[in-house]
Amino acid sequence: MIPKKVFFTKGVGIHKDKLASFELALRDAGIEKCNLVYVSSIFPPGCQIIPKDDGLKLLQPGQITFCVMARTETSEPNRLVASAIGLAAPSDKSTYGYLSEHHTFGETAKKAGEYAEDLAATMLATTLGIPFESEKAWEEREQVYKASGKIFKTTNICQSDEGNKDGLWTTVIAAAVLLPGDDIQKQILSSNTLPLNNFSNANITTTNGSKEIPVSNNGKK
């Protein structure tokens, strides 16, 4: 499956339990109802960037959802944390781009976001053979990348926060959520349950001595 759409989101959560703070960050980002599968850094060819609100409408509870996620957490009071996703998309929509994640402490949202964007753009530039001087500042290299005509867009999304003053866990996340094409998405939206009669006359292997038990249309043994 090659994703056809992507949206970006971010969130922060605070709780006495580390896992619960992550859950609250997911809720803040609007993606808590999904079974998230983390993937690596490729922005698919021809992938369409859509608004967050439009993307959230396409998600169903329990849906297996692929994403590139950055996650940072701390229980140290007032410690600055940030999570960022960077994007670099090529001008040629038939080729792929890059998504990068950056997890950091002690950086502002602006600095962390620009670092993630720089990382994605540099990976794409090396793939496309764009010459650049790595020691130059991001602002200078950004102009070189875009002037080449080979990179269409670079951007980032970042969530930062300070650790809770009372020592509660603070989690910040940023994510690029990848979605399938319209044909597959329609199947997901229209098929919340799988009819039992799809299993008519099927043989199901149980853990009871690995015995295969035929199943009739009414689901009884």
Biggest sheet character: 5 strands, mixed
Radius of gyration: 22 Å
- Tell me how many strands there are: 11
Strand order of the largest sheet: 2-5-9-1-4
By CATH, the superfamily of the largest domain comes out as Pyruvoyl-Dependent Histidine Decarboxylase, subunit B
Apparent shape: flat
What structural class do helix, strand and pairing data support? alpha+beta
How far apart the termini lie comes to: 36 Å
Q: How would you describe this structure in keywords?
A:
221 residues; alpha+beta; Pyruvoyl-Dependent Histidine Decarboxylase, Chain B; 2 domains; 5-stranded mixed β-sheet; 4-stranded antiparallel β-sheet; 36% strand
Please tell me about this protein's structure:
There is one protein chain. With 221 residues, the protein is of the alpha+beta class. It has two domains: 5-190, Pyruvoyl-Dependent Histidine Decarboxylase, subunit B (Pyruvoyl-Dependent Histidine Decarboxylase, Chain B, 3-Layer(bba) Sandwich), CATH 3.50.20.10; 197-221, no CATH class. Helices cover 26% and strands 36% of the residues. The chain has five helices and eleven strands; from the N terminus they run E-H-E-E-E-H-E-E-E-H-H-E-E-H-E-E. The strands form three sheets. The protein has a five-stranded mixed beta sheet. A four-stranded antiparallel beta sheet has the order 3-7-6-8. The chain has a two-stranded antiparallel ribbon with strand order 10-11. The protein is flat, with a radius of gyration of 22 Å. The two termini are 36 Å apart. 34% of the residues are buried.
